[in-house]
Write a structure and sequence with these properties.
mainly beta; Immunoglobulin-like; Jelly Rolls; 2 domains; eight-stranded antiparallel sheet; seven-stranded antiparallel sheet; 2 helices; globular
């Protein structure tokens, strides 16, 4: 009888671990409108997703401890924490509250002086960085660190060098965060900035002039993959003799930080030897 009960316990545990599905909808509490591109992830793991245009999401959390933390977040809103047990296997309606924004007054004297900061070249020995697939890696981030200097500057545009992409258009969320050596911390943006890349290869310019981005010091700047449009199968990357996959790949530069996050709530991976070729045009 005891052996039978133990077998039942382990069968039940196995079923639970294999059927942990978290799904539902993320809304803004102020008006009940769906939040597109809100992030849902299990903290310190690669398990994470983003919401669709109607705020819906579905996250498979296989073989995770039911007490593990799930973080729901969106730039400009207060994040919320739950356990897997609180959310699994039922429809969830989660409402995020707008985070109060305190903006310090910064005075920048009119100037026409512009300069580039970051890496404007690439090194073949550093290889490439990027993503493959159509949907599996939504919420992944790639970027680098850039020193802006002690005085506040206006970020006019971001430039990133592509090796090649399979898509007509790829869409990203821009992140600018504080960084201290290899510790990436607070988000400095107060709202979503969604940008796109249409280049097949070469330098892609992302115009940021309309957002009035004023920053100083060292920043971590990343692009978070959101979605793609127009998959060109003739540009697919050969994985092996049987598998070809869609992709977007960026060229890397040596002696340059690579900042990566393989999931919406995953731990940061930072390398100091090679990173994606990114530079900013700033106005001082």
């Amino acid at each position: 009888m005891r052996i039978f009960l133990i077998v039942l316990f382990y069968l039940s545990l196995t079923i639970n671990l294999q059927s942990q599905i978290i799904y539902g909808r993320i809304l803004g509490s102020e008006n009940g409108e769906p939040l597109e591109y809100a992030s849902i992830g299990i903290v310190n793991t690669s398990f994470g997703v983003i919401t669709d245009e109607n705020g819906y999401f579905k996250l498979e959390a296989r073989e995770q401890d039911p007490s593990s933390k799930v973080r729901v977040s969106m730039i400009g809103y207060k994040p919320q924490l739950f356990t897997i047990k609180e959310l699994e296997n039922r429809e969830n309606i989660i409402k995020l509250i707008i985070s109060p924004i305190e903006i310090a007054e910064i005075i920048i004297k009119p100037t026409t002086k512009e300069r580039k900061v970051g890496k404007t070249g690439h090194n073949k020995k550093c290889g490439l960085s990027g993503w493959g697939g159509l949907n599996e890696r939504k919420g992944y981030e790639i970027g680098t660190n850039i020193e802006l200097g002690d005085q506040p500057v206006i970020i006019k545009s971001l430039h990133i060098q592509l090796h090649r992409q399979s898509f007509d258009t790829s869409f990203y969320r821009l992140h600018i965060r504080e960084i201290n050596d290899t510790i990436v911390t607070n988000e400095l943006l107060t709202g979503n900035i969604i940008v796109s890349i249409t280049n097949e290869s070469g330098w892609a310019k992302i115009d940021l002039d309309e957002y009035n981005l004023v920053h100083s010091g060292e920043i971590a700047i990343t692009l978070e993959w959101l979605r793609v449009a127009g998959n060109n199968t003739d540009r697919a990357m050969k994985i092996n003799d049987r598998i070809h996959d869609a992709y977007i790949l960026f060229k890397n530069q040596k002696n340059h930080y690579g900042i990566y996050r393989w999931g919406t709530e995953a731990k940061w991976t930072i390398t100091k030897t090679c990173g994606p070729s990114i530079y900013l045009t700033i106005k001082e």
